[in-house]
Amino acid sequence: MLDKVLDRLHDPAVYALPAMALLIIIEMVAIRFSDDEEQTGYDLRDHRTSILTGLGALVSSTILRSIALALYLLVYEYVAPWHLPADSWMTWVFLFFGVELLLYVYHRAAHAIRLIWAGHQVHHSSQYFNLSTALRRKWAQWFEKAIWLPLPLLGVHPALVFTMHSVHLVYGLFAHTEKIGKLPRWIEFVFVTPSHHRVHHGTDPEYLDKNFGSILIIWDRIFGTFQPELQRPTYGLTKQLNSYSMWQVQMHEFINMSRDVRQASTFKHKLGYVFGPPGWKPAEEREAKQGSGAESAGFVATGQSSEALT
Fold it and tell me: Rounded to whole angstroms, how far apart are CA atoms 289 and 294?
């Protein structure tokens, strides 16, 4: 385990931490002296929460990544029918697109299954959108580590998988800023840009559950989840948390979910509160609220769109 922790020091994401810190400071200065009223600015308390949350996520990720790496090595060595050569460019091309597609699938599932959303909502909880937001990551990362199983099964060494994932995380820093507007059309068509990712963090109805890509936006275009930026988004959750406590940021949705499960009247309803979409309610409860006018007839229980109901 100690060796795995020490190996983590060679992770691209860890190497990038000093550069991230410098860029965050530069962005803060740029925002401080900007007169652009369309930008959300920053709050030092929010920065602190994001940074502390990110440090905690690094610890959590190191532990879970070490466990996952050991398990995936067993799959790679004893189950995979072949081993792809690490020194082949074709392996790295396959790895890049494999990680990219699995991240899209995982990210979309995180907005559709409440148990996974309870962790993922941490990243959406800030009402600001700046480079420090990229550091606001969940500590409950078991689902994020579990998605890589297909790649070791197909003969990709697990160490390569986690290295490529770290490259995607580093790229994600670039996407979390309002200081970069729209880029040339061909870049916007192929890659995830700050404009695309601002949409993803928006709580506006037209922006909910859109733009799940990590580096490439092509999966969103293929699977119908792409949305261009029309106006500056309103960031955060549809029901804002309004707390700078990193413990509340991490745990509040798990606590809400546990409360709903305890109060559920049937086992089916208990499963619905855990594995249904965020904001899921039993049909009879939704109908009762709709009848009383407390809920709109256009209820959609997916992703952030229903966070206000939880």
Answer: 5
What is the distance between the alpha carbons of residues 101 and 78, in angstroms, rounded to a whole number?
25
Q: State whether residue 235 is helix, strand or coil.
A: strand
Which parts of the chain fold into alpha helices (H)? Answer: 2-7, 12-15, 17-32, 44-78, 89-110, 114-124, 142-146, 150-153, 158-175, 185-190, 194-200, 218-223, 246-263, 267-275, 283-292
pTM: 0.86
With a cut of 50, list the residues of the chain below it in pLDDT.
1-2, 4-6, 9, 294-302, 305-310
Nearest CA-CA partner of 119 in 222, 257, 219: 257
| The pair of three-digit structure tokens given for residue 234, joined into one six-digit string | 């309103």
Quick one: which H or E segment has residue 149? Answer: none
Contact 137, 122 (CB under 8 A): yes
Structure tokens at 79: 């189950």
246-301 pLDDT, tens digit each = 999 999 999 999 999 999 989 999 999 999 999 888 887 766 666 665 443 333 34
Dihedral sign from CA coordinates of 252, 47, 34, 129: negative
